[in-house]
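Narrative summary of target 7.
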Amino acid sequence: MAYTRYKGDPYWKRAKVGGTSADGTPYAKGDRVFFYPRSGATYAGDAASRASAEFDELASLEG
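Modeled conformation, tokenized:
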């Protein structure tokens, strides 16, 4: 991951409360989720892994 980080970039975090991710996957308090601060979208489970990989791929193309 050798790319420039910007304010507003998505990141991994632990959920402070339970909820439902953007794709409808439920998650519990303490689960590891991928969070997009600009839109407020949260992804959990397999969708979180896919969202993280997609962001990393697109960020690496910025150059």
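The longest helix spans residues 45-61.
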